Q: What sequence folds into this?
């Protein structure tokens, strides 16, 4: 129906990464963490949050494993527009929202983007409440579990 | 002819716990036992008879210590068997092989009854060996039957000295007058025809009792029927009522059929309506499933449009902010585009706008399709409502028709029952009149005091040609024996005996009577051999040559001219020569009660019991 080159583009991934980094600002995250959050920002329902923005089809967990490259392209696009900065430090390469990002995000009017921004905010609040490490580990674990189910294996978390 | 099925008697033996076997051996052809009287000659004959199922003979004093009789036989196919019987009587025991003792451990041991019964018996055993089938002989003129047995046949295999000269018919065993059994035995021997096909006739008293019993039974049956019949009603009235009832029944059957047809039609319509309704429901379910799928598609369209809106906005703002953040753009007032490393974002934004328009068109089409489906559902639901009303109307009509059909059927059933009652009544009347006629017929029948089976004599007497052939065989035997006047000998059906030159056998002297008797029995054997009829193939004759008795012996009447004529014709010599000529087909054991010339006897296998301790064998047991 819809040509795939419109969705799942670096632009789309970049906008999502921008929203996530802005919600978590001033924290900087590496590519792995950003890929994880890129999944959960459209699937908050899977993390025990508000209803997911994207439909909950059975193969959704597979998205996570193929998006890493796309997320990286999106971040680089945003970096070229000076909305995101790359930080080379002790944690390797991490990314951080530029202060101009908030101004741009404030201009978003479409309901889709507003909902994305809300979902990113919810993730940031949850991470603050539970502690980043703990919360991210939980998110990783549930993805693991789903990917097992997709492969057809039995759940090992009972 | 050498392969004829026959029995050869090889040896008669007597044994006792403290006596070695006493034996007399025999061979095929002629065997002669002769010598002094009271030396045991006839006891040989009696013992053989006993071992073949006959009566227990009285053992002479010299036979003290003997407790078993043995008979060695050779059956068809060269099969040797031994028969044993106790000196006290009882069953006959058989073993395979020639033995001096037969008991349960002997090979092929079997125990035989003396009588021709259903269990194993000596009669059936030996008769079946030589090819006789099971047959039924007529016993009397009422066609009672008895099985053909070795005991009956024995008169043709073994003739004692009394019967040899008896004036009564040759066909007899011990009776005084000829019975059907005697005739049918000869008929069966010569032709193989028995009395199995002739129905038995009951005696006068039996018939009278049977007649009364029949009338009694039929009258009882008639009385039973009379109880069921209303005799105040004429049969003609019943017939008329039945005709009327049958007409009504036929009319009612038409009504039943009509109502059944209309019921069938209604049921069929009802079924087709119900099928229509099911089809409508199926169509609605189909449409609803379609709408669900359409709705899903619409929500996909909606979310795609939202997502694309977000993209378009993101692309637009990204370009703006890239320009804002660009130190170059800030410094250059010219409205020139320069790439901020965002190549392709603009084209993408444009493509997204076009895509949104396309999806909006599709979403509109989809909305129209959903609306169509919904309105179709409405119209089908309308159809269902109409069909259900129709169905209800049909259901009521069918119920009505069912009721009508049931009532018509029950009326028809009672009409059928009425018809049946009349039919049964008429049937009873018919049977009653048949019974009454039957009783009248039986009453009119007279019972003969001595009923006979129809055509029995015709069936049992030898036919003219059979009698002629038998006569021919007997004449040939007598001719071979050099019997004077043999040409004029024939078997007379009327007398059931031999007639010589118009003179009955019984009107001859004892010597001639004996010889003619022997000739008849040998003639039957020769006839059977020539015609291929079964015959055991051995004959034991006690004193056939009575004509050679000493002149001073007046027991059988004086020697007559006819006796002398036999001697003059040297009948004895010819007699033995002829019999021995049959060696390969038959066996003869001749007891000579009188000294015929020693030279006549010598050429043949013979035993002389001398009664003289100085010469030869003194007697059987000595």
A:
């Amino acid at each position: 129906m819809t040509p795939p080159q419109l969705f799942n583009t670096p632009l789309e991934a970049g906008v999502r990464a921008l929203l996530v980094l802005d919600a978590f600002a001033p924290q900087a995250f590496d590519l792995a963490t950003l890929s994880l959050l890129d999944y959960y920002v459209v699937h908050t329902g899977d993390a025990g949050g508000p209803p997911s923005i994207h439909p909950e089809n059975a193969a959704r967990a597979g998205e996570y494993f193929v998006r890493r490259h796309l997320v990286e392209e999106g971040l680089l696009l945003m970096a070229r527009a000076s909305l995101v900065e790359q930080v080379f430090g002790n944690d390797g390469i991490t990314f951080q929202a530029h202060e101009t990002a908030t101004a741009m995000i404030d201009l978003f009017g479409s309901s889709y983007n507003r909902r994305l921004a809300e979902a990113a905010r919810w993730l940031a609040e949850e991470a603050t409440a539970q502690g980043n490490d703990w919360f991210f580990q939980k998110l990783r674990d549930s993805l693991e579990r789903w990917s097992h189910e997709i492969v057809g294996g039995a759940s090992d978390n009972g | 002819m050498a392969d004829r099925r026959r029995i050869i008697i090889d040896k008669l033996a007597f044994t006792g716990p403290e006596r070695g076997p006493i034996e007399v051996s025999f061979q095929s052809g002629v065997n002669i036992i002769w010598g002094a009287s009271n030396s045991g000659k006839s006891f040989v004959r009696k013992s053989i008879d006993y071992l073949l199922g006959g009566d227990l003979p009285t053992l002479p004093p010299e036979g003290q210590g003997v407790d078993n009789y043995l008979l060695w036989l050779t059956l068809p196919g060269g099969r040797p068997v031994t028969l044993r019987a106790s000196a006290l009587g009882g069953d006959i025991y058989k073993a395979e092989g020639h033995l001096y003792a037969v008991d349960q451990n002997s090979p092929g041991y079997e125990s035989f009854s003396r009588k021709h019964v259903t269990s194993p018996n000596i009669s059936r055993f030996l008769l079946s060996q030589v090819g006789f089938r099971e047959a039924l002989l007529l016993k009397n003129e009422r066609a009672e039957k008895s099985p053909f047995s070795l005991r009956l046949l024995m008169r043709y295999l073994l003739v004692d000295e009394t019967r040899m000269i008896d004036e009564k018919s040759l066909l007899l065993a011990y009776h005084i007058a000829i019975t059907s059994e005697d005739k049918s035995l000869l008929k069966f021997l010569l032709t193989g025809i028995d009395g199995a096909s002739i129905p038995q006739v009951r005696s006068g008293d039996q018939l009278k009792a049977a007649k009364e019993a029949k009338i009694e039974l039929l009258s009882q049956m008639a009385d039973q029927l009379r109880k069921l019949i209303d005799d105040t009603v004429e049969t003609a009235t019943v017939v008329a009522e039945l005709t009327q009832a049958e007409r009504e029944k036929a009319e009612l059957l038409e009504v039943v059929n009509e109502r059944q047809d209309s019921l069938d039609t209604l049921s069929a319509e009802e079924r087709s309506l119900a099928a229509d309704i099911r089809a409508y429901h199926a169509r609605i379910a189909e449409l609803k499933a379609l709408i669900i799928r359409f709705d899903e598609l619409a929500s996909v369209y909606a979310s795609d449009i939202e997502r694309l809106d977000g993209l378009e906005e993101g692309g637009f703002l990204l370009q703006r902010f890239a320009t804002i953040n660009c130190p170059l753009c800030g410094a250059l007032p010219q409205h020139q585009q320069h790439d901020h490393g965002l190549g392709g974002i603009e084209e993408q934004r444009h493509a997204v706008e076009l895509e949104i328009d396309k999806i909006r068109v599709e979403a509109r089409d989809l909305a129209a399709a959903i609306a169509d489906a919904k309105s179709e559902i409405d119209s089908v639901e309308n159809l269902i409502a109409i069909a259900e009303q129709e169905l209800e109307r049909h259901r009521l009509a069918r119920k009505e028709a069912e009721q009508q059909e049931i009532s018509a059927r029950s009326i028809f059933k009672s009409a059928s029952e009425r018809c049946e009652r009349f039919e049964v009544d008429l049937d009873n009347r018919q049977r009653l009149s048949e019974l009454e006629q039957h009783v009248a017929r039986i009453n009119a029948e007279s019972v003969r005091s001595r009923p006979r089976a129809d055509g029995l004599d015709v069936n049992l007497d030898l036919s003219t040609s059979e009698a002629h052939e038998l006569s021919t065989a007997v004449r040939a035997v007598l001719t071979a024996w050099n019997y004077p006047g043999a040409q004029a000998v024939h078997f007379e059906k009327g007398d059931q005996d031999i007639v010589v030159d118009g003179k009955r056998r019984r009107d001859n002297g004892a010597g001639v009577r004996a010889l003619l008797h022997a000739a008849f029995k040998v003639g039957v054997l020769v006839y059977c051999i020539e015609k291929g009829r079964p015959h055991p193939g051995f004959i034991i004759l006690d004193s056939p040559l009575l004509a050679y008795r000493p002149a001073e012996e007046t027991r059988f009447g004086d020697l007559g001219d006819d006796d002398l004529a036999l001697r003059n014709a040297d009948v004895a010599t010819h007699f033995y020569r002829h019999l021995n000529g049959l060696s390969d087909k038959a066996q003869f054991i001749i007891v000579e009660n009188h000294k015929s010339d020693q030279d006549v006897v010598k050429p043949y296998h013979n035993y002389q019991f001398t009664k003289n301790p100085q010469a030869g064998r003194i007697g059987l047991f000595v």
User: Anything to note?
Assistant: The interface with chain B takes residues 1-3, 5-7, 9, 11-12, 14-15, 54-55, 77-78, 80-83, 98, 100, 103-104, 107-113, 116 of chain A (CB under 8 Å). The radius of gyration of chain A is 15 Å. Residues 152-158 of chain A have pLDDT under 50 and may be disordered. Chain A is about 60% helix and 10% strand.
